[in-house]
Fold:
Amino acid sequence: MTDTLAIVTGGSDGIGAELLQRLAAHQPVLNISRRKHRVEDVRLTHPLYQLNVDLEDPEAALKILDNWLSDRPQLKASKFFSCAAQLAINQLNKVSAEEFSKLMVLNSWSPLAITEMLISRGHLATSNSRFVFVTSSLARAGDELSFARLGLYSASKAALGRLVEVQRREMSLGAQQISSTLVHPGIVATAMQDELRNDLYSDPAFREKTSKLPAFREGDWDERRPSMPELSFGDRVVFGMAGAYASSMGSGFSGVARPAEYLLRNGSIEAL
Ligand SMILES: NC(=O)c1ccc[n+]([C@@H]2O[C@H](COP(=O)([O-])OP(=O)(O)OC[C@H]3O[C@@H](n4cnc5c(N)ncnc54)[C@H](OP(=O)(O)O)[C@@H]3O)[C@@H](O)[C@H]2O)c1
Structure:
């Protein structure tokens, strides 16, 4: 019998560590990072496996991962999350060829190399496999997102995005049913974010942009949703698209009156 496995790179810390704990509530998880996730701190429902490898040397890491999975044919990967990455805070004109290739290999090439190996070596579950690549808003082009001393990191994330697009295209030509997604986590209080904010020489524009942002907390998204002004009698609330969920779907058991509803169709308003 096969069991589906979730693989997370960078699960020892930050976003990957959090993700790993949530995934382990549903299925076995394999963490790939240099350090171990501190399992003793959490209770996990499913097994957590750990491969402590350095993704700056992805060829060695791939061999170890391939061997590990080949020794466990009952485990097939249904999810792959790429979180492992590093910053390289430096002026572009000071970046050496060695620093450049090290960061590009870790942040851009290693996630692709792992997924390609999983496909070609038959380590994926046969249906509904999913790749999720964690990128950054700094991968996007635009003056307001191009900060001094973050050029190499931003470029490595932009390269990852482009590589993922091409991989997606190649997978579709090969008729491989694997969903592949790039996600931008926003700003999350992790060691990486601390390193950025504590860089004394960082671009004043970056410091200003992030200074008023609170550290991430559970529920932030709900709190930041645009708030609606208080409604008063006679106000109209307009939904761009209500789908089937008009108030006719509501329950009338309490006898509370429902609001009148109108539909804007082909330029005219109809009472429902
Ligand atoms: N935090 C944010 O605000 C933010 C914003 C945008 C995007 N992101 C992206 O989100 C992802 C996670 O970031 P984070 O903030 O959680 O970072 P983090 O706390 O610094 O964690 C980074 C993880 O990557 C692993 N890693 C680093 N170098 C490695 C290597 N050579 N080999 C294997 N693993 C390595 C680390 O594990 P070991 O040290 O144990 O190897 C660690 O588990 C990254 O891709 C980052 O670019 C973060």
Q: What stands out?
A: The domain at 3-224 is CATH 3.40.50.720 (Rossmann fold). The CA atoms of residues 197 and 207 lie 7 Å apart. The chain is about 35% helix and 15% strand.
